Amino acid sequence: MSGDDNTRAPRSENQRLNALVGRWRSQGRIAATAIDPAIRIAGSDTYEWLAGEHFLIHRVDVRMNEEHVEVIEMIGPYDPASRTYPMRSFDNHGNFVTMRASVDDEGVWTFAGETERATLVIAEDGDSMTAEWERTDNGSNWRHWMDMSFTRASSPSAIPRR
Fold first, then answer.
1. Which of 26, 92, 127, 138 is the most buried (most CB within 10 A)?
2. Taxonomically, which superkingdom (predicted)?
3. Cα–Cα distance between 130 and 128 in angstroms, integer?
């Protein structure tokens, strides 16, 4: 990496990710299916900037019924060609998922991958958000998968920079 790479300013579009920065109490459920009951989800999500503000780090620490799930995700930087933010997540069960995030003029976020997609709506006051998730097995028939709600537990300024 050259010295120029270390001093490059983040894209201005990355500032839209600031709406996510902070600690969130998360709760929700995975929808019941014909063979599986609903699964309760509770825990926390934290979003913080990696130094340089090119990448947003998203950490998930939840219980899904009795199962503990941890995820680390890197979001960004903004890709002007696709007008999206690449997302790469890794969990404590060995799963790796790539998705792309986009945001519309009303501030509604869409996360899209090959088998999962979600719509995230941040409340006007910025203190809560909700997400509706869908999944597909064949790439064309999408089914409701999960509903999540998030309540801000701390302000962005309370997140220590590393």
1. 26
2. Bacteria
3. 7
